[in-house]
Amino acid sequence: MNPASPSRNSFALSAVCLSALMMGLEITSIPSILPTLERVLPADFRQLQWIMNAYTIAMCAVLMAVGTLADRFGRKRIFLSGIVVFGGASLICGLANNAPLLIAARFLQGLSAAAMLACQVAVLSHQFRDGAERGRAFGWWGIIFGIGLGFGPVVGGAIVTLASWQWVFLIHVLIAVVTVVCAVKGVEESADPHATRIDVAGMVTLSLGVFGIVYLIIQGQEPGLSNPAPLIVLALSVASLILFVVIERRIARPMFDFSAFRVRTFSGALLGSSGMNFSFWPFVVYLPIYLQAALGYDAVASGLTVLAYTVPTIVVPPLAERLLLRRGPGVVIPLGLFTIGAGFILLHFVITGEHAGWMTLLPGCILAGIGLGLTNTTVSNTSTAALPPERAGMASGMDMSARMISLAVNIALMGFILVTGVSSYLLRALPRDQSAEMLRTLADAVSAGNLAAAESHGVDIAMARDALAHGIGGVTLYGAIAAFCLSLLSLIVFERHKAAQPEMQAG
Fold this sequence. Notes:
This protein is mainly α. It contains 17 helices and no strands. It is globular, with a radius of gyration of 22 Å. The model is unreliable at 502-507 (pLDDT under 50).
């Protein structure tokens, strides 16, 4: 294969980075407008969760599938299709006038984003083979993704203040047009010659399993004799996931190749992919709600505060890539997850203390962002480098699926922890004659940042703010524990890889 010309590679890198920019903006600009959407659509707390999770569920439902399709029919073809549909879906989001339509459009956005995301890493891996050049390409990808992620809160808050919330979505239509031009001019077509069939059964069982679990967490229904539906959904979800494992282990070319976990570096990288989304990214959904409702910041001030949380992802990835070349993934990935956990511990103590504000939140935000910057691009680079180049689509699909599945589950789980924490606080603070249904309604309103609705039910604003802070404190504690545990687990996996290498060489 002849190497691509530098100019063509530049266009390809631009296309990948612009698509990453769209996705970065889409992740962090939307949470900053959730309080606005709650008022103008209107949308309740569960609908706000679905506005975020429709996107992530759709992505994790088809990410492995589009990775397989890209391997089979061509990564450039799937990449271009994803960009075009993402632009169209963003247009529908901007024109939506009610919560159900916006949720449906977000689901379509997620489907197309999966196509872009599965192909980004595959395109970089195919067109940038040299170690140093590959590191620079992944570094730029991380920087631009970080710019989208870092400035998304400010962009979202500024757009809501200066124009309208619709333009938070409509801006992607313009970016998509430029991205298509760059992709057509620069991206080389590549495919896996051994990919001859589509794993439909695996696609369906994985999608049903993940959707069922996320649905249960968001709905928060308690099972019982009068309400057996949650148990039925749980049983069907678990059965679907078990069937998915059985299917993937038996077919010749699985979309989720469990044999890849025998490669310790690949397993360690996937632990890093999951670890970020047990803590850092799902909290981006709830941090703006806390800042605007509990601390009283407006959309712009809230966005600037969240900027401290996300902006380290702009400057840290190049350092992380250099550290990866010098020290290896066994150092960088566990260190990144540990640093995220340390940042969350600081956030927890500030939020549950008496002096919460943007200045006291700043150290925890920056520390967690540094940890994310150390982890984000290194896990993708490590996972794709650990497997043969012709399986780049499958490797990147498994990497991104680990991210999206853990993100979807943890957005829902953090929401459940938030509502539970708010409910427990209100249960202790309010008179005992409150009905369970009324308590649930109040907890949902407070968790969504709708303190005015809580006040209309007789709850003092100061009490509602304290209840919200208590719930957010539980969320940050969960994020810290999850990050620390996955850091330790990834360290163990990488250490076992180091221990196995001398044995392999001796044999």
